Amino acid sequence: MSELDLLYSEVEEDLRATVRGALADRCTPAAVIAMYDGDRSAVPGLWKTVAVELGLAGLLVPEAAGGAGASAREAAVVLEELGRAVAPVPFLTSAVIATTAVAGTGAALLGELAAGERVAALAVPLTTGPDAPLPALDLTADGRITGAVTSVAGALEADVLLVPAGGGLYAVPAEHARIAPVVSLDMSRQLADVAFDGAAGELVVADAEPAVRAGLRAGAALLASEQVGLARWCLAETVAYLKVRRQFGRVVGGFQAIKHRLADLAIAVDNGVAAARHAAAALAADDPDVPVATAVAASFCGELAVTAAEEAIQLHGGIGMTWEHPAHLYLKRAKADQLALGAPGSHRARLAELVGLPG
Amino acid sequence: MGEVDPGVDLAAVVERFLAEHDPATTDRLEFLRARYDAGLAWVWFPEGHGGLGLPAARQSEVDAAFAAAGAPDNAPRRNVIGLGMAAPTILAFGTEEQKRRFLRPLWTGEEIWCQLFSEPGAGSDLANLATRAVRDGDEWIVNGQKVWTSSAHNARFAILVARTDPDKPKHAGLTYFVCDMTDPGVDVRPLRQITGEAEFNEVFLTDVRIPDAYRIGEVGQGWRVATATLNNERVAIGGRAAPRESGMIGKVVEAWRSLPEKRTPELHDRLLRLWVEAEVARLTGIRLRQKLAQGQPGPEGAATKVTFARINQQLSALELELRGEDGLRYSDWTMVRPEQVDMTGRDHGYRYLRAKGNSIEGGTSEVLRNIVAERVLGLPPEPRVDKDVPWKELQR
Questions:
Q1: Which of A201, A162, A150, A195 has the alpha carbon at shortest distance from A177?
Q2: Is B96 noted as a catalytic residue in this protein?
Q3: Ranges for the Acyl-CoA dehydrogenase/oxidase N-terminal domain (chain A) (predicted)?
Q4: Ordered mean pLDDT values, 10 residues apiece, chain A (359 residues)
Q5: Fewer CB atoms inside 10 Å of the end CB: C or N, chain A?
Q6: Is A293 within a domain?
Q7: Interval B264-276 mean pLDDT
Q8: pLDDT at A2 (0 to 100)
Q9: What is the rounded CA–CA span in Å between residue A75 and residue A63?
Q10: In this structure, are residues B78 and B226 in contact, taking their beta carbons and an 8 Å threshold?
Q11: How many CB pairs below 8 A link A and B?
Q12: For residue B237, what pLDDT is reported?
């Protein structure tokens, strides 16, 4: 097994610069904060920019199917930047998880997702890890779906839901479902409770389980990169602030107690980059190590982002507790991300099986 | 001598060498000397000094080819200081004459090296060291006390930093030397440590005479030369490529797998957390090496070492708790002076105690955090009240 490249290529750095530039213009902290007061008006335009103008919706779709034919490595860089801006777009839920779930099909849906013409969401709770039990909805003899799924991420932005029912995976138009927005801890990835009452769907994958698990695995592996992006912002913003904030006649970032906390955070972020890059590179290379790499990255980066956000708030002092300062956006996203796609503890439990360390 | 083709097939070069020097019939030392002379010792060193002027990354091709042929190696673990610190420093700052004299027997292991840096009054604040070197014609007369010197009892030579000008501020008055450990003024005494053994020594220097020809770099340039040495040390400790589950985590998982009756949920949780951290630290080391190979330097070696020290301490502590009653037993407190150090060797008790040194040796974790904070994050430096004061006026 050759060693995976854990650095960023020039192409990846160019992609990062492009995404960062677009987000700086069109995804302001004020717009994201407004979502907590119910104003979601920023989402459609921002998603159009990301999905269509930058063409990122089709990153993981082969060129033959209308996509960009890129790999998980590039998607990971996009997620780092989306995390850095806490961008409220359904990239992870639609362009990564849902797209991976239908990647092996010849369905027209794949091309439509790639083009950014449609947005899909996998109808499972956001907390569902790649190896967790999956919800199964009832399928009647005439192919109608009945049942409910709570806490679905990306459903509010989706026009099609991918629903595991009766062993298959069905595409159900959003208008055939009852989608009730949830007041969520993280309103920048707002959840919804979804219910189906005899909804008609189109069978897209005959055997749902491997497709759904592949989608969730890719989601968990690449969520680590979003978490790295969140953590990087928290570190950089806190360091920048503490270089100018003065108390007791000194720059606060000059106190050794503070320096050591920030050094520890910088070291942890550096470690997180290696873990997330490794998971993305393994996924891109279809390496047999993907399950271990995913469990490691999910466990480590899930906690890293929360630590970084908590440190950012503490080290900003009072200003970090305000509604106006964006630090809380990062804490809320980081905490929600930690619970998403399998909590760190569940990834470690899976790891125990994978590497032969039974309890 | 012509330039070596950068695309040279090193496996083929080794094969030709082996055809002329059969390891089965050649004397070990003769074999190693010939390997050095052929430029196959450290390929990134220049021609004439054991290398071929190739990128360091290509060394693995040479080592693999020699290992496959069952050739003897230079027992690198016996000469860690020599290979990891003295050699790159001599290469960077030494004269041609010094390189010719020292590098070949250093590489072959004929001459072991140690490091005379730390002193009882100069640990983290190394630049405060008080060992004096006074010029006397073509020689320097050295007096002082050094400490934490591993391998001093086996060493033929030492790299030494001494104060040559006490009237200058502490960093400016230092000079770097090679010290002959067989000089009658060198007294090496074992320094017993918490493991019971004496891996380190105290070295007392009394009127030791060092020829000026053994000075490395200019008079007063010692701090710059020593800093280069220490940077090599930190990378050597933290940046090694290692397979998954090697080092301390390897010992703990071995114990875990062989002791099912000792497992508890609490230990299991800690084990898995540390497994993840050890794996991430390993990946970070790989990433650091990839960066260095691309010529992206940085002080990340400091970060790697902080993590390495913490994880080793937590893992070795966990192993003791896992073993329960057995964790209360220690192999042997007898004072010995080991020839080489294996921090994951001996038994669990030794590992637990030895790991305490990981956050002290080669830069304490506290000093390394300052380095990360100041050089990576650009935060204000610690106040340095002694920086511009002549060394002799400092309070000690």
A1: A195
A2: no
A3: 10-98
A4: 87 98 95 97 97 97 94 98 98 98 91 97 98 92 93 98 96 98 98 97 96 98 98 98 97 98 98 98 97 98 98 97 97 98 97 97
A5: N
A6: yes
A7: 98
A8: 65
A9: 15
A10: no
A11: 118
A12: 41
What's the gap in Å between the CA of A70 and the closest CA on chain B? 22
Point out the residue among A258, A264, A296 whose CB comes nearest to the CB of B276: A296
First to last CA, chain A: 29
Say if residue B241's pLDDT is above 60.
Answer: yes
Nearest to B275 among A278, A345, A357 (CB): A357
Task: Tell me the three state secondary structure of residue A273.
Answer: helix
CB spacing of A259 vs B366 below 8 angstroms: no
Amino acid at B288: L
Per the DSSP assignment, residues forming a β-bridge with B210 are B140
Which of the residues B119, B197, B233, B300 is marked catalytic?
B233
- B94, with CB counted inside 10 A (0-12, 13-18, 19+), is buried
- Mind listing the pLDDT tens digit for each residue in B42-81? 999 999 999 999 988 788 899 999 999 999 999 998 998 9
Tell me the residue range of the domain where A184 lies.
Answer: 122-207
- In a mutagenesis test of the A interface, which of B246, B254, B276, B366 is the best target, namely the one with the most A β-carbons within 10 Å? B276
Residues of chain A in Cβ contact (below 8 Å) with chain B: 3, 5-7, 239, 242-243, 251, 253-254, 256, 258-260, 262-264, 266-267, 270-275, 277-278, 295-296, 299-300, 345, 348-349, 351-352, 355-359
> Is B281 an 8 Å CB contact of chain A?
yes
Same domain, A305 and A226: yes
With an 8 Å Cβ cutoff, are B268 and A272 in contact?
Answer: no
Query: Which of the listed CATH numbers 2.40.110.10, 3.40.50.300, 1.20.120.1200, 3.30.70.890 matches domain B76-233?
Result: 2.40.110.10
Instruction: Give a yes or no: residue A187 inside a domain.
Output: yes
| Structural fold of domain B239-376 | Butyryl-CoA Dehydrogenase, subunit A; domain 3 (1.20.140)
pLDDT band at B4; cut points 50, 70, 90: confident
CA distance B103 to chain A (A): 32
Last residue of a domain, one of A165, A180, A207: A207
Q: Please report, for chain B, the start and end positions of each structural domain, with discontinuous segments joined by +.
A: 11-73, 76-233, 239-376
Using alpha carbons, select from A87, A16, A89 the residue that is nearest to residue A47. Answer: A89
SS3 of chain B: the string is: CCCCCCCCCHHHHHHHHHHHCCCCCCCHHHHHHHHHHCCCCCCCCCCCCCCCCCCHHHHHHHHHHHHHCCCCCCCHHHHHHHHHHHHHHHHHHCCHHHHHHHHHHHHHCCCCEEEECCECCECCCHHHCCCEEEEECCEEEEEEEECCCCCCCCCCEEEEEEECCCCCECCCCEEEEEEECCCCCEEEEEECCCCCCCCEEEEEEEEEEEEHHHEECCCCCHHHHHHHHHHHHHHHHHCCCCCCCCCHHHHHHHHHHHCHHHCCHHHHHHHHHHHHHHHHHHHHHHHHHHHHHCCCCCCHHHHHHHHHHHHHHHHHHHHHHHHHHHHHCCCCCCCCCCCCCCCCCCCHHHHHHHHHHHHCCCCCHHHHHHHHHHHHCCCCCCCCCCCCCEHHHCCC
Interface predicted TM-score (ipTM)? 0.96
